Amino acid sequence: MSAPLVGVVLVSHSAEVARAVADLAAGLTGGGGDVPVAPAGGGPDGGLGTSSDLIAAAARSVDRGAGVAVLADLGSAVLTVKALLADDELPSGAKLVDAPFLEGAVAAVVTASTGADLDAVAAAAADAYTYRKA
Amino acid sequence: MRTTGERTTRTAMNATPDPEAPVDAAFLRRWLESATAAVEREAPRLTELDSPIGDADHGTNMRRGFLAARTAVEQEPPPTPGGVLVLIGRTLISTVGGASGPLYGTLLRRAGKELGEEQAVSAARLRDALRAGVDGVATLGGAVPGDKTMLDALLPAVDALTGALDAGGGAADALAAAAAAADEGAAATVPMRARKGRASYLGERSIGHQDPGATSSALLVTALADTARGDG
């Protein structure tokens, strides 16, 4: 039995963005589709915003015991993850990763698919800040 | 702790609380009533302030959060003032949906934890707890005074509260001073340039608008002063 993979949670103000980025990252990972990835998008009323309940549920759903990398898009998404972590309301191995949302998500999922540990997944996602485009 | 229920009932029925320790669970429940009413009344204004420099949801978000907090506290009233603040904070984090949720949630939860299990505390203990809560907001959001955020109302409020209590003022007068300082602090955000949150993307264009978060902070501190004066 292989070791459990790091889970990835994608927190966006928009349910559609979170879902689409999760699909994109999983799609680009090809055969490594075993990585548990969960979107947590939109606010408590379903509109644009951040839902702490969705974030906590997503983190629990991808926790296989190897840690959970949480990526967030902006403002309240970042602050809500931090507030949840400060009060131990996410799985013990959960970590907010400082990374660009889309590029970081792809890097995190691809790296997690190799069986890398949480620190390596977080480092790969953070490294996405250095990808220059012009 | 078996006497908790009985003591809570007595406290709730007691219209003249201990002057040395005026802040009990009933006091903070009255504050929540007053704050929720103020947020409901001012929600359109908060959203209007949030329109030119934010995403026009501050009033809606605050209204949703405080109504949920009031319901949560009504359904299962915590027996201690710390417990009331922790429950309100937790509810705001899970229901507001914007940055004000984790920020106010952290403020109140941190303050509530500072108060511990005590049944009633002095104004000075409330001040210390609020100071710890406001420090928590600063740490979470990474803002400093002058960044055009809720800290620009909250920090002057805690300073004024401290000054008034140190000068020997009573709880009601000290909280009134805090409310005045919060109002002034909120008004002083108008010429500031936003350095945090969505408004910071606007750069110079954020100048000339009062910060919605500082405005709601002033409302919440004013509700505290109203509660202490007895007409919350």
UniProtKB/TrEMBL annotation, chain A:
SUPFAM superfamilies: PTS system fructose IIA component-like. GO terms for biological process: glycerol catabolic process; phosphoenolpyruvate-dependent sugar phosphotransferase system. It comes from the Bacteria. It holds the Pfam family EIIA-man. GO terms for cellular component: membrane. InterPro entries: DhaM, PTS_EIIA_man-typ, PTS_EIIA_man-typ_sf. Keywords: Transferase. Gene3D superfamilies: Phosphotransferase system, mannose-type IIA component (3.40.50.510). PROSITE patterns: PTS_EIIA_TYPE_4. Residues 5-134 form the PTS EIIA type-4 domain. Its EC number is 2.7.1.121. One of its GO terms (molecular function) is phosphoenolpyruvate-glycerone phosphotransferase activity. It is an enzyme of class 2 (transferase). The keyword Manganese does not apply. This is Phosphoenolpyruvate-dihydroxyacetone phosphotransferase, subunit DhaM DHA-specific IIA component. It comes from Actinacidiphila bryophytorum.
From TrEMBL, chain B:
Its EC number is 2.7.1.121. It is an enzyme of class 2 (transferase). One of its GO terms (biological process) is glycerol catabolic process. It holds the Pfam family Dak2. Residues 1-21 are annotated as: Disordered. GO terms for molecular function: glycerone kinase activity; phosphoenolpyruvate-glycerone phosphotransferase activity. PROSITE patterns: DHAL (PS51480). One of its GO terms (cellular component) is cytosol. Keywords: Kinase, Transferase. It comes from the Bacteria. Residues 26-226 form the DhaL domain. NCBIfam families: dha_L_ycgS (TIGR02365). This is Dihydroxyacetone kinase subunit L. It comes from Actinacidiphila bryophytorum. The gene is dhaL.
